[in-house]
Amino acid sequence: MIALLIRDLRLAVRAGGGFGLGLAFFLIVTMLVPFGVGPEAAILARIAPGILWVGALLACLLSLDRVFQLDFEDGTLDLLATSPVPMEGVVLVKALAHWLTTGLPLVAAAPAFAMLMQMDGPGQYWLMLTLALGTPALSMIGAFGAALTVGIRRGGLLLSLLVLPLYVPTLIFGAEAARRGAEGIAAGTPLLLLAGITAGSLALIPFAAAAAIRMNLR
Amino acid sequence: MNRFWEFANPVRFMSWSGRLLPLLMALAAFTLTVGLVWGFFFTPEAENFGSTVKIIYVHVPAAAMAINIWIMMLVTSLIWLVRRHHVSALAARSAALIGLTMTVIALGTGMVWGEPMWGTWWAWDPRLTSFLVLFLFYLGYMALWAAIEDPDTAADLTSVLAIVGSVFAVLSRYAVNFWNQGLHQGASLSLDKEEHVADVYWVPLVIALVGFGLLFVALLLVRTRSEVRRRRTHALEMRERMADA
């Protein structure tokens, strides 16, 4: 499993994979918003948590079709299915690799982007914290969507249609916790609910995603 | 119990559903006519609502069916995954479009009602928002069915989507509640009309609900029967092509 993780990470970094792309996309979204709504600092600071969360979510979505697609096409997934590692474990590792190459850079860059959006120190801290808690769920749910659509050619648009409604609870709790934290209100409840969604996704979704992959390989 | 599952045999299904269908259609037409005519013409206009209260006879049943149809799809999907009855999978597929239509009807009549009552076509109220999310779930489910060629794989994958989707639909429902409370403290747009409905409106409303339920079962049987027939023609075509080759 560790070998698989290292292989996936290497592929993502080397082969022009989505490593930097998600981050660049996040930057562009952040840059476009002031063009759209105007540069007033007060407005930007107010909408920043929501905008940055939506931006992170879209950046996450961008690289999802790579999670299983290439391995499905060249037969690696068939080999993995016959290997001693259970398919649930493969899914978990794949989602982890996706998070390490997409979610983690977003979390690390979040304070800088929050600064661009005129958020103050506590706001940056809260945005980083909620993204760190929430992006694993985004990767895991996304891996489920990728597993469903792996057998479909040009399934990218369908993938977004399937995955985005599933992202609704994560986005609500994440953006709400970030907003409350930035405004200095008690944010414990949405934060705990966000952590609950992440924990629940990590525990249960691998089974559904693995089942979907087995159905696609049959 | 074994006798119960025999109804899922495609041949048996075609025979009993064919006999039941005219009766169901007549019953649905009758209850819908009674419920709607009673509701539209023989109930008083409500205080504060005027005649707009009559939208309730379409709006509430459509909304109730939109949710119940998703639950029915969840159950038939589980039956397909456990017992592999093809009719079950086809019923889930057939129900999706009806559910989508009911969701659109509920949203549309809600908007028409909201405009005179709240002064706005749309508010980001928890109920309205969760119906929009439900609409997207139906769309995604149908798109997945349409995108996969192999019928058994499609049935499998959409079943998994229905199960996971149900969990997230419930989560969204409560998350949306939370989100709106967070934004507008003490929102006063209570949509819980049932609690306020007086007896004069209650009886025709229940009849309309039953009518919508019967209509759904009748439409579901029609659509499932045509899906079974489509499978059969497809199988016949394949056989002919094999014979030619």
Commentary on this structure:
The complex is a heterodimer of chains A (about 220) and B (about 240). Chain A is built from 10 helices and no strands. The radius of gyration of chain A is 18 Å and the shape is elongated. Chain A has helices spanning about 1-15, 20-35, 40-60, 70-75, 75-80, 85-115, 120-150, 155-165, 170-185, 190-215. In chain A, α9 packs antiparallel against α10 (about 190-215). Chain A is an all-alpha fold and about 220 residues long. Chain A starts with a helix and ends with a helix. Chain B has about 240 residues and is mainly α. Chain B has one domain (about 25-185, about 190-240): Four Helix Bundle (Hemerythrin (Met), subunit A). Helix content of chain B is about 80%, strand content about 0%. Chain B has helices at about 1-5, 10-40, 55-85, 85-120, 125-145, 150-185, 200-245. Mean pLDDT of chain B is about 85; it is low at about 180-190. Classes of the chains: A mainly alpha (about 220), B mainly alpha (about 240). Chains A and B meet through α8, α9 and α10 of A and α5 and α6 of B.
Keywords:
heterodimer, A: 218 residues, mainly alpha, 10 helices, B: 245 residues, Four Helix Bundle (Hemerythrin (Met), subunit A)
Uncertain segments of chain B: 182-191
- The parts of chain A where pLDDT drops under 50 for at least 5 residues are none
Q: What's the pLDDT, averaged over the residues of chain A?
A: 86
The value of Rg of chain B in angstroms is: 21 Å
Number of strands of chain B: 0
Mean pLDDT of chain B: 84
Rg of chain A, please?
A: 18 Å
Order of helices and strands of chain B: HHHHHHH
In N-to-C order, the SSE pattern of chain A is: HHHHHHHHHH
Please tell me the total number of domains of chain B.
Answer: 1
Helical/strand content category of chain A: mainly alpha
Shape of chain B: globular
Give the assembly state of these chains. heterodimer
Morphology call of chain A = elongated
Strand proportion of chain A: under 5%
Helical coverage of chain A, percent range: over 70%
Q: Helical percent range of chain B?
A: over 70%
Q: Sheet bearing the most strands of chain A, described? A: none
CATH architecture of chain B: Up-down Bundle
